[in-house]
Automatic annotation (TrEMBL):
It catalyses: diphosphate + H2O = 2 phosphate + H(+). Its cofactor is Mn(2+). Belongs to the PPase class C family. SMART domains: DHHA2. This is Probable manganese-dependent inorganic pyrophosphatase. Pfam families: DHH, DHHA2. The lineage of its organism: Bacteria, Bacillati, Bacillota, Bacilli, Lactobacillales. Residues 181-307 form the DHHA2 domain. The keyword Cytoplasm applies.
Length: 309
């Protein structure tokens, strides 16, 4: 049996890194030979989580084919979000909680996708179904991933399953998830130490929408003014990213994790579908989006419908 690599999406968030570790652990318990790796360095929130549970960061890879023939994907399926040479390896497993887009394989595979708030919630269910015990440290990591993806269970992506799983994982890990969760989320909002490019690259995904390549970044904060005091520099960084990577449109979703409101910074074009998606006019390259916190549920589906209209 040859070794396989397990990884989440590019610009990994906490769930992308934790889900890879959790699914790799499960697969190895079931007899596979896998290694959890990452397609980028951990962001500040994820590093806080790893440090809290004394867990090493995964090895970062740029290509998979030089090492292995096959891979397992977690927390993503779209090729443009995956490893650069994804077309050169066989995907044997996918565990995800996002839309399916642009994904095809030549061979049958294991595919598990559920509309839950976090990929680690799906993996928790796989542990239970296979009667594999979740160690306390891994439970803490998985708990952190769900807190991150659901903004401490306040995101509209949150399901009752996510709530139940958080409570169970908190017991296993012996963690007060409310207190820990807020501390963890705030650890990811230290913006002053980051450059504009770092801010827009830390949590960003690319989407192909009716012939346009749209990059959507999300910045979590406790003060939207702290983000938009740097608007001109953020716009310049986004324009550079558009030019360097062929993005048509760069959208920066700044989200206040305390009051669950966001503001969208729009760089590039076309902009008409963005206005149509949210029923508002862009002013000063910005759109106010009260109550919007989820890129997956409250931004990308609306953009997809508007671009395809």
């Amino acid at each position: 049996m040859s070794k396989e690599l397990v990884f989440g999406h590019q610009s990994p968030d906490t769930d992308a890194i934790v889900a890879a570790k959790a699914f790799s652990y499960l697969e190895n318990k079931l007899g596979a030979d896998t290694e959890a790796v990452a397609l980028g360095e951990p962001n500040e929130e994820t590093q806080f989580v790893l440090n809290h549970f004394n867990e090493p960061a995964p090895r970062v890879i740029e290509k998979a084919a030089p090492e292995v023939d096959s891979v397992m994907l977690v927390d993503h399926n779209e090729p443009q979000q995956s490893v650069s040479d994804i077309a050169d390896v066989t995907v044997t497993h996918v565990v995800d909680h996002h839309r399916i887009s642009g994904f095809a394989t030549a061979q049958p595979l294991f595919y598990r996708a559920e509309p839950l708030g976090c990929c680690s919630t799906v993996i928790y269910k796989l542990f239970k179904e296979n009667n594999v015990e979740i160690p306390a440290k891994l439970a803490g990591l998985m708990l952190s991933a769900i807190i991150s993806d659901t903004l401490l269970l306040k995101s509209p992506t949150t399901t009752q399953t996510d709530v139940d799983v958080v409570k169970d994982l908190a017991k296993i890990a012996d963690v007060d998830y409310q207190t820990y969760g807020l501390e963890m989320l705030k650890a990811g909002t230290n913006l002053a130490s980051k450059s504009e490019t770092e801010l827009i690259d830390a949590d960003a995904k690319s989407f192909e929408l009716n012939g346009s390549t749209v990059r959507v970044a999300q910045i979590n904060t406790v003060d939207l003014a702290e983000v938009f005091d740097r608007q001109a520099a953020l716009e310049a960084a986004a324009k550079d990213e558009n030019a360097a990577n062929g993005y048509d449109l760069f959208l920066i979703l700044a989200t206040n994790i305390l009051d669950s409101n966001s503001e969208l910074l729009v760089v590039g074009g076309p902009t008409a579908p963005v206005e149509a998606a949210f029923g508002k006019k862009i002013e000063n390259n910005r759109l106010s989006l009260p109550g919007v916190v989820s890129r997956k549920k409250q931004v990308v589906p609306q953009l997809t419908e508007a671009f395809n209209a």
